[in-house]
Write a structure and sequence with these properties.
27% of the residues lie in helices and 30% in strands. By secondary structure, it is α+β, with helices and mostly antiparallel strands. It folds into two domains: 222 residues, Antithrombin, Chain I, domain 2 (2-Layer Sandwich), CATH 3.30.497; 137 residues, Alpha-1-antitrypsin, domain 1 (Roll). A hairpin with a 2-residue loop joins strand 7 and strand 8. Helix 1 packs antiparallel against helix 7. It is elongated, with a radius of gyration of 21 Å. The two termini are 41 Å apart.
């Protein structure tokens, strides 16, 4: 399968996950998560699975084989996640880790995939007598990989003496806007909450032309990050419903169109009239396994004989994934964006000539996406319901 198709399948999975999270589970809270991070952990689990469990994972991940998933992951790691900061682009880091009970050994074929495709460090640990210490080790690892932003990816009690394997993944992103906002122009204004109340929050603004496009019932703003000396272009997109309480219906619209983001990218700068974007900072964690089960991915979490390709032992018959924990962080200010997460074809649009200024007034709940535009890979997604809440 070609990379473009694999990526669009991966984005489709991301959107399924996101719309479920945003509309069903946490529709009244600020959220940020990395669908890519969760995808990588599931791909890693797939590499050690077989039978119906593997079939269900592949079907959920919209992939035809583990080879396809492995190929996608290795290309993404080399393509998307190379650190761009030495040449002036965004600072990026992406890391995988595997912790395995020391009385077990990984199957050579699985160990090779873990090391070569996922570039994951394998750590032998003592779950049976030191479960709490191992959990702390994983948490320290995630904190280090995300520049201190993700403190506890594994909550207390999530690891015990029956744990045999932990898979973890961490993503860190820090980008500077192509055109920074002038801090002296940031001013307080009203933000309309879903319950009809208003709160005062600091809004950034600018008189410069912006990548904004109006669609039916919503607008999209694209804020590009400074590019390094490679082809990658990272951009943060803000999807703002026209209606003050229109976020839910916008999320539904996104969920019903698999290539929604590709089709709603503002490609040219326009004059803006009123232009306000709130500063915000969000830290959000959830148990991803609960959400995955609700979406029908149940077999990896059930036990049975699905995860037999991971370890060289008859214990392989009774392994299961007890939980997948995910935690993300994002901060948007005048300089740019810092974001982190951990879990355990060119079509030109005809330009539209217009002299009218477009307003982009993000004074009510909206959705955001951080995306790499060359490939279309979505790194982070989330929503802002109340910019005051961290």
């Amino acid at each position: 399968m070609d990379l473009q198709q694999s990526i669009s399948n991966q984005t489709h999975v991301s959107i399924t996950l996101a719309t479920h999270l945003l509309s069903k589970k946490f529709h009244t809270s600020n959220i940020v998560f990395s669908p890519l991070s969760i995808h990588v952990v599931l791909s890693l689990i797939s590499a050690g699975s077989k039978g119906q469990t593997l079939d269900q994972l592949l079907s959920f991940l919209k992939s035809s084989s583990t080879d396809d998933l492995n190929s996608l992951s290795s290309q993404l790691v080399s393509l998307i996640f190379a650190d761009g900061s030495p040449s002036g682009g965004p600072r990026l880091s992406f890391a995988n880790g595997v912790w395995v009970e020391k009385t077990l050994s990984l199957k050579p074929s699985f160990k090779q995939v873990v090391g070569t495709v996922y570039k994951a460090a394998s750590n032998e640990v003592d779950f049976q007598t030191k479960a709490v210490e191992v959990a702390n080790e994983v948490n320290l690892w995630a904190e280090k990989q995300t520049n201190g932003l993700i403190k506890e990816v594994l909550p207390a009690g999530s690891v015990n003496n029956s744990t045999r394997l932990i898979f973890a993944n961490a993503v860190y992103f820090k980008g500077t806007w192509n055109e920074k906002f002038d801090q002296s122009m940031t001013k307080e204004s009203d933000f309309h909450l879903l319950d009809g109340n208003k709160v005062k929050v600091p809004f950034m603004t600018s008189k410069k032309k912006q990548f904004v496009r109006e669609y039916d019932e919503f607008k999209v703003l694209g804020l590009p990050y400074l590019q390094g000396q490679d082809q990658r272009q990272f951009t943060m997109y803000f999807f703002l419903p026209d209606a003050k309480d229109g976020l839910q219906s916008l999320v539904k619209k996104i969920g019903s169109t698999s290539d929604f983001f590709d089709r709603h990218i503002p490609r040219q700068k326009v004059e803006v009239g009123q232009f306000l974007l709130p500063k915000f900072k969000i830290s959000f964690g959830f148990e991803a396994s609960d959400t995955l089960k609700e979406l029908g991915l149940v077999l990896p979490f059930n036990g049975g004989d699905g995860l037999t390709e991971m370890v060289d032992s008859t214990i392989g018959q009774s392994l299961y994934v007890s939980s997948i924990h995910h935690k993300s962080f994002v901060e948007v200010n005048e300089e740019g964006t810092e974001a982190a997460a951990a879990s355990a074809g060119v079509v030109m649009l005809k330009s539209i000539m217009t002299n009218e200024k477009v307003d982009f007034l993000a004074d009510h709940p909206f959705l955001f996406v951080i995306r790499e535009d060359m490939t279309g890979v979505v790194l982070f997604m989330g929503q802002v319901i109340d910019p005051r809440v961290g």
